[in-house]
Design goal:
There is one protein chain. α4 (45-53) runs parallel beside α17 and α11 crosses α17. An eight-stranded parallel sheet has the order 2-1-8-7-6-5-4-3. The chain has a single domain (2-204, 261-312, 340-368), classed as Alpha-Beta Barrel (TIM Barrel). The protein contains 17 helices and eight strands. The protein is α/β, with parallel strands linked by helices. The protein has helices at residues 2-10, 22-26, 29-36, 45-53, 59-67, 72-90, 92-97, 117-131, 146-155, 168-187, 204-219, 232-248, 251-258, 282-285, 298-307, 318-330, 335-368; strands spanning 13-18, 40-42, 105-108, 136-141, 160-165, 197-202, 265-269, 292-296.
Amino acid sequence: MQDRIRKYTELGQAIWLDYISRDLLTSGKLRDWINAGVTGMTSNPSIFQKAIASGSDYDTQLRELARAGRSTYETYEALVIRDIRDAADQLQATYEESDGGDGFVSLEVDPQLADDTDKTIAEARRLFRTIERPNVMIKVPATAAGLPAIRTLIGEGVNVNVTLIFSIEMYAQVMQAYLDGLRARLDAGQPVRRVASVASFFVSRVDTLVDKRLTERLEAGDMQVASLRGQAAIANAKIAYDRFKHVFGGAPFAELKAAGARLQRPLWASTSTKNPAYADTKYVDGLVGPDTVNTVPPHTLEAVCDHGTPARTLDLYVDEAYAVIEKLKAIGIDMREVTDTLLNDGVRLFAEAFEKMIADIDAKRRSFL
């Protein structure tokens, strides 16, 4: 297991765990993954909702908070912040050994604030200061309202994981927001070396929706589209990486780099395989390259450790990736419509998971009272 993960690391890709739970943190399982080469963690409302609602790992703390008179939201935050701090502490050595380049754990801003810039900024600031760990990233969604929030937060030195990126056009704006935030910080005479950010580009969900559109064509008798199934997501990500290299390997980043600024690494998210007809490591092995992160759920990580094939693939056949998108366009599949739909669905699903988590906590809290 250890050798396999470290081979990805040697190719320049950090492997992060897309999961968190109290049991993972207290049982030693996270420590085992870190020893095997995992260098970071991500969370989201869906992950926390499942962790808190299932089992009794959180019940002792929840009972104490309920009896202390804490509100439902205060209870949620206390549960989550304890987990994030614990994870950050276990990753602290990784953070120090990498000179602040890795070893991060991410916590999402309330997704119900996705369309409110000012509230997103205020909440991200508050969470970052409350958690009080240098290796924590606050997740801000890549919405129109999120972009100015990203600029402001980076300018203030808040580490940001920009989440729910699906389109190349939005990714370009996310990179620019990061650069603008760094520039503002530099112009204010503030150091930029320890400001960290990743851009979470979602992958498998793109294939899920595009394949659905293609299946509709196949059912209508258009057999020529069959070869495009399972191609869109990796093609989209490869084009994103091509843009990343242009921005961070060229003039736009040169002065900031000289001042000590770090790259905003692309992070491949949603990399579990949704279609059982595809390989379970498809969205890991197909996207390996320098200066990237792949965050994977436990079952995908176990598959990677068992039979992953680490090899540099991300910048191979890039022309073919552009060609795939052009072919989709030629048959009437609009990637802008696909990615807009996925962004709206992503924000909605996270908001629903957040609401359900709050409801679950409230029910347990009331039972303890």
